[in-house]
Design brief:
The chain is an alpha/beta fold. Bound molecules: ligand SFD and adenosine monophosphate.
């Protein structure tokens, strides 16, 4: 009897289903529960992990990166729209950015009310890291936000399923009717039936080969457990996707991936290359090639990366963050008072360590292991492997409907609804609305939560789930367990077998293709039409073998499906870089055969869509709408 025969099928019916349990999903759960209670509706949330520590904020954060501060009169919502337009080299859904920006402050105020400690100065004002960023004591950030979501769900009679991995959407006639997945702890296959679904399963990590290979394999800046489930879910549902070419490459402290924002913005540190000095100053002229964006402030994140990469390509690396110099400068005004100087140095030292202890503990550990004292010695920084993340300075994700009160060309339904009826996308799952970060993702979740309930009240229908199709899916999803069981005894080493491939091996194969042909770390982020076409050839063979993955247990079963999800986002990425015949974001990727930005032909969104009926991909150019007067 196959192993899969032992799996119980559990059916759960709800009005609204939220898949994912991170920042955007918690925002959706909090808001949707409020409106669901008023209308007597049920909300169910499903997370592959445990809500308290799941997603990107698992380890905590040391800053809230999106706060407009309208009440302080410092910025306007329009300022934020301009900021995002500039950072993404002209490509952003300004209606979505505006919508999140006008609501984000209220989210931050809620966080504070729920118990998050936001730093304040002597006058009681928030301490800013930069113009849009607030400093927090954020080690328990996720727990606080999860608690609010749990309370709201509880109050409205909702349910949470933890450690259930969502694999496939259920769609009938371009309308979402639910989702299926499996427990990562028990032999249970789950069928969720719903009138509307909000997808918030985060971004994608480990599509490209990471810098951390060998003993450090798995370490990454963005969470390794976010594997592209959002993109897979929306693509497989038949939703139009946008900006799938816009991967995000952050510069991070090397090898443990500590973020740099606090160093650049709060400590006002410089970055240099060993042989070339301060690359942002020395290579300033290069920015003219990327006008108008290269000539305006702040210089887009990808161009900041690019100037450092040029130094590395010229053999001038490594790159360093001048931490000792920055701390020295900040303490300088106290130098005539030894006691005050010592106190200030102590304060700066503890802020430097807390930044990582709150957010990327591994970086603090690496500092300790390498005997780094940031006040005495600089630290190496490097551009990471690419990530897919719509909430930071990347933009990939689903193409969603704009806000109801704005006159934009992008409206076909309820705000944040994808092109599949009843399916909403939020956070890293929704595209072209970059720079939402933790607070903006939660805000977008809140917006979608309210809209999804409105959709259910106005249009909700009993989900017509085809249980025949569900049975087929169950068989397919559990196949890796059966494949392993049926063939495991044929060879002495269970990991080497001609009948199957283990998930780790499959992952390495995908990462090798992406790294070498699609502009990963070892290819120095460069690619070309010919390289991408070769990637497509190899990807087709990989896809054939994806049915041959084998799993020893539930954990490996999850690994198999994470891989397949990564493979799909990889394919959409390669197809979209091929489609956009220019280089718009050097520093994220460089198309060597079309090395210049081409505003006449490519100042547009590059969208793609996979048709579930035919299995064909369609590439679509969409115009960019600019907010009048902004
Ligand atoms: O410094 C499934 N982020 C930062 N945001 C800030 O506001 N300030 C910062 O300081 C930030 N920095 C930072 C950040 C992230 C990380 C990892 C570090 C540093 C080290 C970004 C934010 O964290 C990010 O924008 C939001 O968290 C995005 O929210 P969302 O909801 O899109 O994703 P999520 O929180 O990762 O949650 C994903 C959820 O989905 C679950 N999941 N559930 C069921 N089935 C599946 N198949 C699933 N796949 C995934 C996950 O378990 C999780 O619950 S700094 O670098 O800029
Ligand atoms: P990071 O730690 O790199 O994720 O950055 C945190 C925040 O600071 C994000 O909003 C970044 O866009 C911003 N940021 C980081 N470095 C710089 C810089 N050199 N100039 C302007 N903004 C920056």
């Amino acid at each position: 009897m196959p192993v899969s025969a032992d799996f119980e099928t559990v059916e759960v019916s709800t009005d609204l289903l939220i898949v994912g349990g991170g920042f955007s999903a918690c925002g959706a759960a909090t808001e949707a529960s409020y409106w669901a209670k008023k209308h007597g509706l049920k909300v169910v949330l499903v997370d592959k992990a445990a809500l308290d520590r799941s997603g990107a904020v698992a380890m905590g954060l040391s800053a809230i990166n999106q706060y407009v501060g309208v009440k302080d009169g410092e910025n306007t919502v329009e300022d934020y729209v301009r900021y995002v337009r500039q950072d993404l080299m002209g490509v952003s859904r300004e209606d979505l950015v505006y919508n999140i920006a006008r609501h984000v402050d209220s989210t931050v105020h809620l966080f504070e009310k729920w118990g998050l400690k936001i730093w304040t100065d002597e006058e009681g004002k928030y301490v800013h890291e930069g113009r849009w960023q607030l400093m927090i004591n954020g080690e328990s950030y996720k727990i606080i936000i999860a608690e609010a979501a749990k309370n709201a769900l509880d109050d409205a009679g909702g349910e949470i399923y933890e450690r259930v991995f969502i694999v496939e959407p259920l769609v009938e006639n371009n309308k979402i009717v639910g989702a299926v997945g499996f427990s990562t702890r028990e032999n249970k296959f789950y069928v969720f039936k719903a009138k509307a679904v909000i997808c918030g399963m985060g971004g994608a990590v480990h599509v490209f080969r990471p810098r951390s290979v060998g003993e450090g394999f798995g370490r990454s800046w963005y969470p390794p457990f976010n594997s592209g489930s959002s993109a897979y879910f929306t693509i497989k549902a038949g939703a139009e996707m946008t900006c799938q070419e816009v991967r995000f490459i952050p510069v991070r402290f090397k090898d443990a991936y500590g973020p740099v924002g606090a160093w650049f913005l709060l400590f006002k540190s410089r970055a240099v290359s060993a042989g070339g000095g301060e690359y942002m100053a020395v290579r300033k002229d290069e920015l003219e090639n990327w006008a108008p964006y290269g000539l305006a402030k702040p210089i887009p994140a990808n161009l900041r990366n690019y100037l450092g990469m040029l130094d590395e390509d010229a053999g001038l690396g490594p790159l360093y963050m001048e931490t000792h110099e920055a701390i020295g400068k900040l303490a300088e005004e106290y130098k005539d008072d030894p006691k005050a100087f010592k106190k200030k140095m102590k304060e700066l030292e503890s802020e430097a360590w807390e930044d990582f202890l709150d957010m990327t503990i591994s970086q603090a550990i690496l500092w300790a292991a390498l005997n780094v004292k940031p006040e005495e010695k600089h630290s190496e920084i490097a551009a990471c492997e690419p990530y897919f993340i719509g909430s930071h300075s990347g933009a990939s994700g689903a193409w969603v409907s704009g806000p109801e009160d704005l006159d934009t060309p992008y409206k076909w339904g309820y705000t944040n609804m994808t092109t599949v009826e009843g399916l909403f996308a939020v956070g890293d799952a929704s595209g072209a609305s970059s720079h939402k970060f933790s607070s903006g993702s939660h805000t977008e979740g809140r917006i979608a939560g309210k809209q999804a309930i409105k959709y259910i009240v106005e249009k909700g229908q009993e989900p017509a789930v085809d249980m025949g199709k569900v049975e087929e899916l169950k068989k397919k999803i559990l196949t890796p367990l059966d494949l392993f069981d049926a063939n495991k005894g044929k060879y002495t080493d269970p990991e080497v077998n001609t009948e199957y491939i283990m998930p780790r091996q499959f992952l390495h194969r995908l990462q090798k293709i992406m790294d070498e042909y699609a502009g990963g770390v070892t290819a120095r982020f460069k690619t070309s039409k010919s390289l991408l076409e070769r990637a497509m050839e190899l990807m087709a063979l990989l896809k054939e073998d994806s049915d041959k993955q084998a799993a020893r247990d539930l954990h490996e079963l999850m690994r198999c499906w994470e891989n397949i999800q990564r493979m799909w986002i990889a394919e959409s990425h390669v197809r979209t870089i091929l489609f956009r015949e220019e280089t718009r974001w050097p520093g994220y990727y460089f198309r060597a055969d079309t090395p210049k930005m081409d505003n006449d032909n490519w100042l547009c969104f590059c969208n793609c869509k996979w048709d579930p009926a035919t299995g064909e991909w369609e590439m679509i150019k969409r115009d960019i709408w600019t907010m009048p007067g902004v």
